[in-house]
Amino acid sequence: MNNPEHTPIRYLKGIGPKRAGVFAGAGLNTIGDLLYYFPRRYEDRANLVLISRLKLGEIQTIRAKVLAFDQHNSWQRRGFNVTEVKVEDKTGRISCVWFNQPYLKSYLKPQTEVILYGKVELYGKRLQMSNPEFEIIADETDARISCGCLVPVYSLPESLSQRILRRLIKKALDEYLSKIKECLPYDIRQRNNLLNLAKALLNIHFPESPDLQKEAHKRLSFEEFFLFQLPIVLRKLKRKNKQGIMHKVDGELASAFISGLLFQLTQAQSKALEEIKIDMAGPQPMQRLLQGDVGSGKTVVAAAASLMAVQGGYQVAFMAPTEILARQHYEKIKSQEPGVKTGKPLSMELLTSSLDKKEKAKIYQDIKEGKIDFIIGTHALLEGSLQFRNLGLVVIDEQHKFGVAQRLLLPAKGANPDVLIMTATPIPRTLAITLYGDLDVSIINELPPGRLPVKTLLFEQSRRAEAYNLAKQELRLGRQAYIIYPVIEESYALDIAGAKKMFAELKSGEFKDFKLGLIHGKLKQEEQDRVMLEFKTGKIDVLISTTVLEVGIDISNATCMIIEHAERFGLSQLHQLRGRVGRGSNESVCLLVSDGPTAQSSGRLSAMIKYNDGFKIAEEDLKIRGPGEFFGRAQHGLSELKIANPLAQMQLLKRAREEAVKLLNLDARLEDRQHLLLKEKLAQRFPDYEKFMLAG
User: What residues have CB less than 8 Å from 647, skipping those under 6 apart?
Assistant: First the structure.
């Protein structure tokens, strides 16, 4: 029980079984968890103000004693409860008022000493604090950590107050800080001018000064970045020591595919393909990230790479996150398949969860025997019973839809196959290199010639009819349209009209002269496929859909998209949806319909109108949402970044990466005595990474 990292939180005085359960609900199970539960902000209470010196209109902190308490119902508003408390210090008195908080009667009793933090206002002819934050001062411990300093403010677990949480964290620091084990080697701390761990933890919770708080933030951010980078760098170093497949990249099958295309590859596509060829021909296994905006032609590059593997006698596994997208890849690549020209037909299959047992068993057997060269599928490819005869290349589309462990499962079915990961979520290059440090990065940053930018317009809800009229203009020209909704059923809580309800209304109303279809994630796969085929073949003019369309389908005749309740969508999601139109040679429009956007959603919608470039969109989205939500914390391990921010601390992140490379080049298995605590911390933080990276 000496190591706080492993000591159960119930051993801290003041936390019994019931309160331990509350902490567990917030993910705090050990003393270490509590010490790493960082404040979300600070209140500057360094300067307590005497009541006689309070200034009108300013947020200030006072320490006072409760004189009188009164609670009554407002005579102006029925059912409106008013709590008024008079407090005093040695220089004067002031009233504090709260609304609809009757429970305050239990806390603000006469003679109770309190800290009050709030804005001073004028009520009639007297000064008043309205709804101030308050804390009871039971003893001098409360006083020391609640006033006269930078005071930490935490996200509160259920039923806890700031005062109680602060006291418990202070108690944990007093009792366990001396037992905290330093995980960063001394030379790394010295080179980067970092505080030791104990001093950093003390000053992140209860800063001795603003400067020390900044130093503590820097130290703890560096630690998080460093621990995050170690397994990524380790994976890249281990790859260099593996013997991969030296593919025959110049061959008849791949050449026939490229020469048979009805268009020329863009310069960006050609450059990306050349980088992939060099990797595939080399002795180490390829690990490459292919970034490209929606419609930039990543699939063609991946298909060409796949045929390079096939022509040398290897199998290819191509995994997509949804059945619709997997089917589209299959049909697109199949239609361009060059086997007829070369005299060697390509054996290609689609494997999805919706196949019946008999069909699936037949495909499994054919893959095992090597009768299938190229298999495209969904998560079904990860099934443990699926075995490959000679897996040479793994392609993973929309990688952010899969977790880290999932991405490692498919390559494990071969003997160090090459891996190509695709994403249509562009990431600024410096950030991509840092977050995907084990991957080499190729970027397709230009659209095919003739592809026109999609014009984006914003309409308030009251102008929805204008958006519908623009859509009908396109439909009368023989083109097709999408109308996207954020939910399937109607949500009364959010006041959103669902796709099913609006389908019925629009079918008999605004779009009664056109053929409408409905698609959403709750439909059976056969029904989804049927509707999509009807839309693709022109039997449906308007497709009403939910975000199931975010990735997938490519309909060149669709030139208009209406996104209802656009303020409910994330920026990258809006951009992905917009990418479903503008796939042909006709000018396309994306019409955003919004009702009462917030300040944050206004920023998203403005960026959509201003930018068509996915990389610009990504930068704006990162600024608005932050990296955790942008990348999906579960997929990236970003849940471990409790205090660090890759976007705001890029230089610190780069330094952490450089130190990780330097350390692992000297001691890849972290076996030196001075690195054992670091290895222990790494295994504790990233159990999945330990399983895949530190073993063997």
Answer: 431, 622, 623, 626, 627
pTM for the full model? Answer: 0.68
Q: From the CB of residue 577, how many other CB atoms can be counted at a distance below 10 Å?
A: 22
8 A C-beta contact, residue 203 and residue 195: yes
User: From the centroid of its chain, how far is CA 680?
Assistant: 27
Task: Give Cα separations from 321 to 286, 316, 521, 583, 660 (angstroms).
Answer: 22, 17, 13, 21, 32
Q: Alpha carbon of 513 to those of 516, 581, 670: distances in Å? A: 9, 22, 70
| Exposed / middle / buried, residue 408 (Cβ in 10 Å: 0-12, 13-18, 19+) | middle
Per this entry, what is the length of the chain? 696
Confidence band, pLDDT 50/70/90 cuts, at residue 660: very high
**Model confidence pLDDT, tens digit, residues 219-238:** 999 999 999 888 888 878 87
Percent of the chain residues topping a pLDDT of 70: 87
For residues 406 and 411, what is the distance between their CA atoms, to the nearest angstrom? 10
Judge whether residue 261 has pLDDT over 80: yes
- Average pLDDT of 260-275? 91
Quote the CA–CA distance of 366 and 363 in Å, as a whole number.
Answer: 5
Indicate the SS3 state at residue 135: strand
Mean pLDDT of 53-82: 83
**C-beta separation of 490 from 568 below 8 A:** no
Judged by phi (left if over 0) then psi (alpha if -120 to 50, else beta), residue 478 lies in left
* Per-residue pLDDT reduced to its tens digit, 303-346: 999 999 999 999 999 998 878 788 888 888 887 766 545 546 68
Output the six-digit token pair for 6.
């492993």
Find the helix packing angle between 323-335 and 298-310, rounded to 10°: 70
Residue 692 has pLDDT above 60, yes or no: no
pLDDT at 293 (0 to 100):
80
Show the beta-strand stretches assigned E in 125-204: 126-130, 133-136, 150-153
pLDDT, greater one: 122 or 621: 122
Determine the average pLDDT of the residues in 88-103: 90
As to burial, measured by CB atoms within 10 angstroms (0-12 exposed, 13-18 middle, 19+ buried), residue 234 is: buried
Q: Which helix (H) or strand (E) holds 32?
A: helix 31-35
Sorted by where each starts, the structural domains of the chain and their CATH numbers stand as 47-148 (2.40.50.140), 252-281+296-423 (3.40.50.300), 455-611 (3.40.50.300)
Rg (CA), the chain: 30
User: Mean pLDDT, the chain, as a whole number?
Assistant: 84
Q: Phi first, then psi: give them for residue 669, nearest 5 degrees.
A: -100, 5
Instruction: Please state, in angstroms and as integers, the Cα–Cα distance from residue 538 to each residue in 308, 503, 516, 653, following that order.
Output: 35, 18, 11, 51
* Cβ atoms 204, 194 nearer than 8 A: no
3-state secondary structure of 459: strand
State the DSSP code for 68: E
Structural contact between residues 644 and 224, judged by C-beta atoms closer than 8 angstroms? yes
B/e letters for 58-70, b = 16+ CB within 10 Å, e = fewer, are eebbbbbebeebe
The H-or-E segment that residue 561 falls in is: strand 558-564
pLDDT score for 304: 93
Could you report the per-residue pLDDT of 682-691, keeping only the tens digit for each? 887 766 555 5
Give one DSSP letter per residue of 582-594, joined into a string: --SSS--EEEEEE
**Amino acid sitting at position 218:** K
Confidence of residue 161 (pLDDT cuts 50, 70, 90): confident
DSSP structure string for 426-448:
---HHHHHHHTTTSEEEEE-SPP
Question: Any idea which residue has 């330094």 for tokens?
Answer: 655
Strand 81-89, strand 59-73: pairing: antiparallel
